[in-house]
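Minutes, project check-in
Item: structure for the 483-residue chain
Input as provided by the requester:
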Amino acid sequence: MSRQKDTSVERVLLVFLDLTALFLASNLAFDVRYGVDWRGIFGEVLKDGPAPWGELYQAIPYMLLGWFVIFAIFGLYRPGQRWRGEVSRLIKAQAVAFVVMFATAFFYRGFEYSRMAAVFMVPIAFLLTLAFRYFFRLAKEQLLKMQNVRERVVVVGRSEQTDRLFRRLLRPDNSFELVGALVEEKQEIPEGIARLGTPRELGKILTRKDIDRVLLISGDLSHPELTGAMNACLRHRVHWGVVPDLYDLLVDRLNVEEISGVPIMGPAGINLVGMNLAIKRAVDFVVAALLLLVLSPLMLLVALLVKLTSAGPVLFIQKRVGRAGKSFSFFMFRSMYQKSRDKTHRDFMKQVIKNGNGEPKKNGSGQVYKMEKDPRITPVGRFIRRFSIDELPQLFNVIKGDMSLIGPRPAVPYEVGMYAEHHRRRLQALPGITGLWQVSGRNRLSFEEMVELDIHYIENWSVGLDVRIFFKTIATVLFSRGY
């Protein structure tokens, strides 16, 4: 009997643990502040008197609500996170949460709080949240090791996308147990995965082993083999699913619908249409106008530095490809020497798009999909690129309606000329100053992975997703991981 994946209970438990951690941290911080005599160390600097428990408990509901919202924005309740990434997001989310909390307490004079208690609360809350989440992971892994909890899976067939499927099935924090694979004798499978036989022996395997689900790789199986495998699953009352060979071609999420009772599979539609598009455009205009007002002194300073340190105009204006393939004038602070040729970048993008190869990092730790040590960049340009300050003039593009604050990055025409047909789906939305791929790995991602993220964004757009990307972008810039 198949079990559908449901992560709602897991999310509720994580929310409960996070809020419990903050509640305990606030109480422990007050205990440490008011239960210990600190006057011997700090003297008359500290105010004496009883702990203001009443004021603390009046503020706690608002603290808990803000805590939950910020954690959700940073994606801490998404299933299937790796521990290292979860800790990184936890640090950023808590830093933002405490800054917001302290700023609110400073401007809202109706609540008096102890700064020393607040200082104690920061490390206590982080350690408690980290400990609760760590032990939650341990408990989850132990529960998933139970025979009656994990769903036993067999993979039948082998194709290019199967390796990624194998890696995900082998992760200890998922609800599946990969029993093995049925492939042809000449086909290789990754080390550590049991070879159970050939696809034609599926019936024997289902007879001998307790299997819950069979995954059929359609790109490697003929029609008779697929039909035979499905019939074997039906005979043994085992749930089966097909991994379509169209996956690598379509890239985007597949949608299944019925036409006259016949299931039809095709690409999902986009979510940036109608009222959604109108709301996004209104928010873009208001926020861009406010940012221009606030950042105008910084932009004037950068313009002056660019003008004084190298010959040429302040702004770099280039034709880019926007929504529906329409070109527009794209604004940036000039970060390169005047009359720099684009042949270097053109050849590099050809290598990345067609071959999927980037320049190796210095430490040999993988591929990076941007140019390192580009000789065309000025010293000031290198600095403003590091903190993405060169992107600020694009706020005028947002005001004009050529761009959005958040969306796929705009491509230059010669890049679009190299696109395969499925790459062009990223042109169905207004390009953005920042986007999902910038906060999801940026230069560690391949071009195909970037396209996948862009398509995921336009298919699953929501106000909440934009807010999460916006705050993650701020964290990315502050930690100087900009272009």
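Outcome recorded: Residues 274-478 form one domain.
No further action items on this chain.
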